Amino acid sequence: MSTTTPEIRIPADLLPADGRFCCGPSKVRPEAVAALAAEADEYLGTSHRKPTVQFMVSRLRNAVAEMFALPDGYEVLLGNGGTTAFWDALSFGAIDDRSHHLVFGEFSGKFAEVTRSAPHLGEPSTAKAEPGSAPALAAVAGADAYCLTHNETSTGVAVTPSRPEGADEGALVLVDATSAAGGLRFDAADTDVYYFAPQKCFASDGGLWLAACSPAAIERIERIAASDRWAPASLDLGIALENSRKDQTYNTPALATIFLAVQQAEWVNQNGGLGFAAGRCAESARTVYEWADAAEHATPFVTDPDLRSQVVATIDLVDDVDATLVAAVLRANGILDTESYRKLGRNQLRFALFPAIDAADVAALTQCVDHVVAELRSA
């Protein structure tokens, strides 16, 4: 296939108002950036252990609790390093011995490898499915932690978090919600650690993790932290809990990331909460999947409609249309980051449908893809 980007100009009346469709870092609303600029002189460059920043962290923790309608006793923790670091933190501070993993994409598989390589943990078990589908969640004897992904960013598959029937008493449900949190509905009571980084639906930047933790998860974190199990201080969930209760992080965070996440979370809450955000994503998803189902040159990668993500859409193109060229032409016209996940290796486009992205722009994106495909075929 050609590596030269064809000189195709998309008519201005077809282009979206905002061409950012990246699955992370995601589009940040201009209003949030303007708010940060307006407060920068008194906020950026100040101590994260002083009231100005602590109040911002408090706003973020409270906004997350409100958005997720957290039950009594749940606490919002945060720390540096993003979800990748949090996998390590969970292996040190939230899994007693054996975890069970649903593996159905790149990121769910990575967490399973983290626990498998941890010398202080027993061998994890996995239930696997091919990319584009998802395995069922079933109880496994001896598992004290069930690990699943709410939305698999690499494949565009979403599953509803739940507790496995018949699980051992005290087993925790750990949900990686990095591309789902703030965009997909869920019942927090069905989770014990619902964790994410804010560079997707929370329309901020990476490098920070947040986790909504149940009383059972808090008890386990405190118990393990008090034991003789060693953990690096930066990955010690006991230390993260202690600092979060003070509305701060153990080490210096990116202040702009916290601020932008607050702007997004409070915007969502002011407009109706998680139902508002999920509704925006659902409208965009409906537009994409109806287009792909009807188009001759496109089809949804996820064949089961019940598993199709409403925050990340993966769309296969027919063999005679090079998805890499389509994405390159879109990029040359200001429509960014529509390439498929690099390790999936499919002739595919991938679009973020996060709450900050307007459904009208998603509709325009589909028209632009149609235009580019027609131009490529007529060349």
Question: How would you describe what is shown here?
Answer:
By secondary structure, the chain is an alpha/beta fold. 37% of the residues lie in helices and 14% in strands.
Give a summary of the structure in a few sentences.
This protein is of the alpha/beta class and 379 residues long. It contains 10 helices and 12 strands. Helix 2 runs parallel beside helix 7, helix 5 crosses helix 6 and helix 8 packs parallel to helix 10.
Please write out the topology:
Elements: H1 30-43, H2 51-67, E1 75-80, H3 82-93, E2 99-103, H4 106-117, E3 125-128, E4 145-149, E5 151-152, E6 157-158, E7 172-176, E8 193-196, E9 208-213, H5 215-225, H6 237-244, H7 255-270, H8 274-294, E10 298-300, E11 312-317, H9 323-332, E12 348-352, H10 359-378
Parallel strand pairs: 2-3, 2-4, 4-7, 7-8
Antiparallel strand pairs: 1-9, 5-6, 8-9, 10-11, 11-12
Helix pairs in contact: 1-7, 2-7, 5-6, 8-10
